[in-house]
Amino acid sequence: MSYTWNVYKIFKNGKRAKAPLSSFNFDGNEREADDHFHAVVLENFEEKYRVMQFSVIRDDLPQQREQKQDETLRKQTQILARLARNANITEKRHFSCGLIFAKTTNWNWQWCALQSGTNVVLASLSPQFKTHGDADSWMQKQIQTLK
Q1: Whose C-alpha in 29, 98, 110, 131 is 20 to 30 A from the C-alpha of 52?
Q2: By the 8 A CB rule, do 128 and 103 touch?
Q3: Whole-number Å distance between alpha carbons of 53 and 134
Q4: 3-state secondary structure at position 128
């Protein structure tokens, strides 16, 4: 059975857009749909959209943002801060952490500490991942260790 999946932009502050940016049809589970979106659908987007982060939600499920997402974001920030402290970063100010897909990560997904303003990679905080979904799964496992 084919489902319709809504694509929402994720802003830099971690909050999701209220309205979907796009939709597509796909037969599979959430992880497979997310992988399909990043491998196939995103290629049809304009260049400026390809660097953004997105959330993929099945159309027949509730679309409102959950409070749990805010708690997950707080825990994710806690994990990244701990990893950055252990990474021996010499620049103690003006850096942020995030999931990137760039030449410096050999075109793989990786959680990194980034110099603010330039996004130069200061330290790798995770292994490299082939898909965005794998990087998210790794982060969820890290969050589960906090409990």
Answers
A1: 29
A2: no
A3: 14
A4: coil
Strand order in the sheet with 121-124: 95-101, 109-115, 121-124
Say if pTM beats, i.e. exceeds, 0.70. Answer: no
Neighbours of 142 (CB within 10 A): 19
The dihedral formed by the CA atoms of 77, 73, 13 and 20, expressed in degrees to the nearest 10? 150
Domain map (residue ranges) of the chain: 3-58, 67-144
- What pLDDT tens digit does each residue of the chain (147 aa) get? 789 999 999 887 778 888 999 999 999 899 999 999 999 999 988 888 888 899 999 998 888 765 556 778 889 989 998 898 888 787 767 888 999 999 999 999 999 999 888 888 999 999 999 999 899 899 999 988 886
